[in-house]
């Protein structure tokens, strides 16, 4: 079985390599931003509702292209192959690093390769449509993100969620290895008070740095909280914010089409009762 899997991986990789050779015939050393292209960054955190958000804004049929966690080689999309037109062997290198990331996850892997995030975004914008990329802490360094914000002045959606709920959801996902479409209500985890507060401080500091960078660069922004994703008027505003025009927006869902994994708050409730705290004490507040 292992040999068969290895053989398939070799053949799949060989096909990818040969496809890249073919793309050299179409290679163009220069590109320019397409007049109908737009960059949107979803700046968020693990277990904050980005999967739910994606279900409402990932619609290539009307030009909304959601690339997910593109900069940690965690999501393959058609743009990967198309970038071969401007960056030789892009998809081959992306493919190799995707395999390596699955074998041994590393922070900032994209920046450690021969691929450059600034150049990559520049070439992505040569194609029409809205290009939506999700960014979590440790996907790209703060220096790289500050440069991207300064150079491209993207539209930015900041998505926050109550720290305690995020922490519990993340612990459950790590404990089970299941990140989507699984009921985690009965999964038992322990809340480490020191770990929780360290977790909060790190994410608030990262968010604050990027929020200040976005403000100083004059970026257009939406800063929303997870619960607002279930408000149809907010959903409509997000869709209008990321789109280039209003074409097709009326057909998009006005509520997440994902399934809620954790239908119980018992772990949070027990923790709050033990330490005499309130759920609102852990709200992830927006900064101005």
Count every helix, treating DSSP H or I runs of 4 or more residues as helices: 10
Cα separation of the termini: 56 Å
- Helix and strand content put the structural class at alpha/beta
Query: Biggest β-sheet, characterized?
Result: 5 strands, parallel
Strand content: 5-15%
Low-confidence stretches: none
- Using DSSP, what is the number of strands? 5
Give me a quick take on this structure:
30% of the residues are buried.
What can you tell me about this protein's structure?
- With 288 residues, the protein is of the alpha/beta class.
- It has one domain: P-loop containing nucleotide triphosphate hydrolases (Rossmann fold), CATH 3.40.50.300.
- 44% of the residues lie in helices and 10% in strands.
- The chain is built from ten helices and five strands.
- It has helices at 2-23, 50-57, 78-82, 90-103, 117-124, 142-152, 163-176, 193-216, 232-242, 266-275, and strands spanning 37-43, 64-66, 129-135, 155-160, 221-225.
- The protein has a five-stranded parallel β-sheet, sandwiched between helices.
- α1 runs antiparallel to α4, α5 (117-124) packs parallel to α6 and α6 (142-152) packs parallel to α8.
- It is globular.
- The N and C termini lie far apart (56 Å).
- The mean pLDDT is 90.
